[in-house]
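To whoever is on call:

I kicked off a structure prediction for a single chain this morning and the downstream step that reads the tokens threw a length-mismatch warning. I double-checked the sequence; it's 154 residues and nothing unusual in it as far as I can see. Pasting both halves so you can look.
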Amino acid sequence: MNANIGMYERGVAAGLRWTLVLIFALFGTAKFAAYEAQGVATLAASYPLFGWMYPLLGERGASNVIGTIELATGAMIAAGAWSTRAGLVGGLMGVATFYITLSFAIGAPAFWESGYDAPFLGRTGQFLIKDVVLLAACAAIAVDGLRRMIDRTA
């Protein structure tokens, strides 16, 4: 029975890994399109961590930087299938990505639906809330990479 559990755990971990790779590939690629650059600028241009990029690189340039980081994160998570260190680093990059995007919720316009407040999510809240589970998934990938690194040295 324990052998079967291990097989299921590996299957679930692989499914999680490749789903995250797909998500980062799609999100990252979209950042190179004008419509996505405009959408990201709505939140990111006034955010201190990213706001400096907009005067320097413009809307498309800033979005391209974010897209490149997302594509690199997906690549590291993918490489984690073969490299424990890449899995750990990719998972941590994903955790950082989603901590940052979730921090947009602080003071974001339309996080709660106007006239209702919590727990009724507005447009921004609906857009950002999915990142909670994506953060947890990236944390699981990072922990898996760390566990595999420890198992190799033990």
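Update from on-call: the warning came from a stale cache, not from the record. Cleared it. Sanity check on the structure: The mean pLDDT is 91.
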